[in-house]
Amino acid sequence: MLCVSVKKGVDCAFMTKKGCGYNGGSCHEIVEKCEGCGKIIMHTEKKYCSVYPDPASKWSMGGCRTATHIKKAVAEQAQKINPLKASKRAAHGR
After folding, report:
1. Which parts of the chain fold into alpha helices (H)?
2. What is the pLDDT of residues 9-48, one digit of tens each?
3. CA-CA 20 to 30 A from 66: which of 5, 13, 57, 88?
């Protein structure tokens, strides 16, 4: 449904016929850690997250899962090779 409380005219998953169903009754502005994210929308000169109504709660648990401005490091581990199988493969190629 379209929001009628804070972000008027924007599609919101928490909006019901009785009003905003989110805890507190309205969306909250973004926090400093959200700056640079691609999910930010501007509405009446204020910045809101298009995914979460309370971005501060997502950052309090360690990090926002949908943040587009943060690259997560993927640890690549060298694959262990069984020495017995490696010697059999080498002998098979002779």
Report:
1. 55-60, 83-92
2. 777 777 777 777 777 777 888 888 888 888 888 888 888 8
3. 5
Closest CA to 30 of 12, 52, 9, 15: 52
Phi, then psi, of 47 in degrees rounded to 5: -105, 130
Residues 2, 58: Cα–Cα separation, whole Å: 23
> Does residue 43 sit in helix, strand or coil?
strand
pTM check: above 0.85: no
Give the separation between CA 28 and CA 93, rounded to whole angstroms. 65
Residue 13 corresponds to which tokens in the numbers above?
């998953």
CA distance 81 to 58: 40
